[in-house]
């Protein structure tokens, strides 16, 4: 069994994929397999990927767009490594990222996820570089926020510590955790397609008792382009992505929120959901489709909830012994 498989999902990624692949293939830890799953790109992405001649690279060209979730699930289903590293096609890794991340993961068998320091600008060492993400925290409204986002690297108290979750741009997952928290053969819930699937995985990992750790020694570049929480930015993104954003937040809550914690946090959760609904009703009616999708898939969502919450009780009982 391979130690690690690296998974990259591309879709019209011609502007960034070459630098991304170069940074992956030049890692100090070189004993890995690299899956690139292309979601039916119509630009030069396929041509660029095919120009890389490396025996570690496996290139899968899909005939349809299976999304972030479907693409990475393909890699997971077709590999058997001890760890899986997801890499966004717009990420550039420092040369020792994989080596450092594996070292952190190997320090504790209950670490299911390792996330590193993602910087916004193309300079690994500058203290003035702005932070994209240093792991994620969960708010009482059930929004996951990026730690230290837009803070200067040199002015931030960056230390190795446990956090709630990892950004989906560059998480290292332990295979044992992947198998534990998957629903049937889905690690990423394919109802999500794209957006907030990393929130879902982080939440499920916490429910099942797995730890996520942030390490400032694992450094990469990731310029953030997608910020739907900003209404100004939201108006510029496609209607399809807006629908996924609304739909996926509802699925997150329906699957993962406990009744007991909802009683104490509902005062934060409900006002946000009402605001989203009325904003959509007035300004963004095309996103009303999100609610129809959720209702159509509600039986499946509730089946997934029963499995998740059942495992929560099982884990709590086991840890209590």
Task: Explain what this protein looks like in three dimensions.
The protein is of the alpha/beta class and 321 residues long. Helix content is 41%, strand content 18%. Strand 2, helix 2 and strand 3 form a beta-alpha-beta unit. The C terminus is likely disordered.
User: What is the CA-atom radius of gyration, in angstroms?
Assistant: 19 Å
Give the helix level as a range of percent.
40-55%
In total, how many beta strands? Answer: 12
Q: Could you describe the largest sheet, including whether it forms a barrel? A: 10 strands, mixed
Please work out how many helical segments DSSP would assign. Answer: 11
Helix vs. strand class: alpha/beta
What is the terminal-to-terminal distance? 33 Å
List the secondary-structure elements in sequence, H or E.
EHEHEHEEHEEEEEEHHEHHHHH
The stretches of 5 or more residues where confidence is low (pLDDT under 50) are 317-321
Could you tell me the mean pLDDT? Answer: 93
Shape: globular
What portion of the residues fall into strands of 2 or more residues? 15-25%
Write a concise keyword list for the protein shown above.
321 residues; 10-stranded mixed beta sheet; 11 helices; disordered C terminus
Short description:
The chain is of the alpha/beta class. Helices cover 41% and strands 18% of the residues.
């Amino acid at each position: 069994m391979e130690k690690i498989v690296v998974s990259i999902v591309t879709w019209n990624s011609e502007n960034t994929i070459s630098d991304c692949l170069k940074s992956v293939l030049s890692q100090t830890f070189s004993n890995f397999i690299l899956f690139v799953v292309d979601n039916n790109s119509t630009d030069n992405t396929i041509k660029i990927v095919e120009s890389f001649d490396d025996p570690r690279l496996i290139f899968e060209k899909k005939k349809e767009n299976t999304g972030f979730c479907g693409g990475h699930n393909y890699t997971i289903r077709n590999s058997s490594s001890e760890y899986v590293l997801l890499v966004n096609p717009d990420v550039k890794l420092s040369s020792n990222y994989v080596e450092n991340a594996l070292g952190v993961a190997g320090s504790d068998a209950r670490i299911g996820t390792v996330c590193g320091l993602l910087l916004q600008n193309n300079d690994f060492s500058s203290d003035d570089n702005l932070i994209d993400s240093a792991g994620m925290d969960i708010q009482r409204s059930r929004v996951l926020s990026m730690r230290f986002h837009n803070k200067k690297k040199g002015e931030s108290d960056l230390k190795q510590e446990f956090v709630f979750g990892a950004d989906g741009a560059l998480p290292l997952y332990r295979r044992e955790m992947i198998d534990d928290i998957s629903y049937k053969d889905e690690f990423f819930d394919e109802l999500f397609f794209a957006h907030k699937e990393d929130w879902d995985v982080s939440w499920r990992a916490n429910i099942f008792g797995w730890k996520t750790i942030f390490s400032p020694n694992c450094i990469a570049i990731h310029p953030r382009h997608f910020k739907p929480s900003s209404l100004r930015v939201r108006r510029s993104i496609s209607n399809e992505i807006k629908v996924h954003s609304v739909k996926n937040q509802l699925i997150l809550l329906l699957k993962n929120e406990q009744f007991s914690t909802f009683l104490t946090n509902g005062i934060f959760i409900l006002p946000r959901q009402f605001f989203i609904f009325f904003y959509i009703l007035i300004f963004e009616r095309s996103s009303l489709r999100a609610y129809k999708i959720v209702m159509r898939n509600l039986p499946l969502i509730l089946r997934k909830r029963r499995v998740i919450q059942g495992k929560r009780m099982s884990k709590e009982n086991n840890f209590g012994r």
